[in-house]
TrEMBL record:
It comes from Mycobacterium asiaticum. Residues 60-149 form the Methyltransferase type domain. It comes from the Bacteria. The keyword Cell membrane does not apply. GO terms for biological process: methylation. This is Methyltransferase type 11.
Amino acid sequence: MTIDNAHIPTTFDDLIAEAMAAPTPGWDFSWLNGRATEERPSWGYQRLMSERLAGASAALDLQTGCGEVLAGAKKFPPTMAATEWYPPNVALATKLLHPRGVVLVATTDEPVLPFADGAFDLVTSRHPHDVGGWWPEIARVLTPGGTYFAQHNGPDTMLELIEFFLGPQPGAGAERQPEAERQEVEAAGLQMIDQRVEHLRVEFFDIGAVIYWLRKVIWAVPDFTVDRYRDRLLDLHQSIQDDGPFVTRAIRMLVEARKPG
């Protein structure tokens, strides 16, 4: 793959200034084109989601972000709703999804869904921030025989990058381990019918890309600011300059669970 980075500044301060000036609302990561790469899972979540939506009668997309993944579906069921809790994303998702007839519901990040029992025969989600406490609510709003279909962030996603700034994180991602997630699914009264995990290579080609990513994914290094981590950023910048891209991993899980019916 050819990386076109001719337009990218090379000095530490210029890279910082450019990354800090870039807008970060929503989940559009196109600013990173030419500055970072990430392998994609083999299963093609958006295509599989679209196929399931086309056959549903009522569906809900949880934590839809800016709605861009959901908007990629070719056909929606007669009833299509989505939720989002992060205020900057709510406005963007509303603008994108309303013209397609999707009802966007602004929620909190607490595991409570403002829908009736058995309201949906399909619930989807791509990269929910946290799904652990949501399983009982997911089970509640599904019809008997209904399906939850999602792509989750797996355990230790971007751990090498996180530990570069925060130090060792023993036990990080324990609640996202496949077996732990399976147990939560079953405790909520659902049946896990498919669960796949893939480890995917991620490369950052300059320190500006790292800063931009940390500004968007605010829970990765919760106290991140350039001033607070300037020394570590300078170390990482020098390492990239001397040794090449910073390499970490994204771990993705495909999850399909069914409510007995």
